[in-house]
Amino acid sequence: MEIFILLIFIFVLAAFLGKELISKVPSQLHTPLMAATNAIAGITIVGAIVAIADSMADAGPLGRILSVIAIILATINIVGGYLVAERMLGMFRKKEDKDK
Prior knowledge:
Structural class: mainly alpha
Number of strands: 0
Largest sheet: none
Radius of gyration: 18 Å
């Protein structure tokens, strides 16, 4: 039970710190920050796939299903982040570049 309370505390602390940090970032830096975050998330999902492949023999059916769902949701998050970043970068292109 103590470890659960510690994990909840870390989660709440990370949420508050994340909100404070993001609110201090100027709007001109949101797109590069988002692109870097997506790259880190991509590395994280590769690590998750490797970890799941190593532990798949020990995981029961519920563990396998949850693992696959987690990877699918993380992949959707990463792809959506890249699409949003690309769209935001498109807003800063000159009109001649958009026509190409």
